[in-house]
């Protein structure tokens, strides 16, 4: 069921780009246990975001992960998707200026990749992490589905904090500690 674009080689490239994932902790934390929990959590998210979710199949639902490269119901070139923050009068549109198609309309930033990366305010930081420039993926968001970035985008989302939320990695590895006992 897995889409053939999701490969082990692409997963290794993605992990290699973000060495904090399954890195070695030198402060007494169990690196191997954290790595196992990290990978299990990441793949659970992949299954939830891109899974077939077809309970009638002989394949257990948890094994139906990585089926979709693009958000169900969306195709490349489709207009009006997840681009409400593209307006250059809002801070998201200024910080991560959206690309435009040949008609001058904003590109669509619908879910792509193993974590279904969405919106310009996620594509821009991911592009910056990969290229040192926000423009490449804001101008060609389809690369998140069509290249090894289908998995790299998911690993990025796992390690990237977005205030007020910490990174998922820092929750898993115990780096982040809540400051409100509620």
Automatic annotation (TrEMBL):
Protein name: Secreted chitinase
UniProt xrefs under Gene3D superfamilies: 1.10.530.10, Endochitinase, domain 2
Glycoside hydrolase family 19 catalytic domain mapped to chain residues: 6-179
Keywords from the named record: Disulfide bond, Plant defense
Entry GO MF terms: chitinase activity
Keyword presence, Disulfide bond: yes
Any one of the GO BP annotations: cell wall macromolecule catabolic process
Pfam families reported in the protein's UniProt record: Glyco_hydro_19 (PF00182)
Membrane among keywords: no
UniProt xrefs under InterPro entries: Glyco_hydro_19_cat, Lysozyme-like_dom_sf
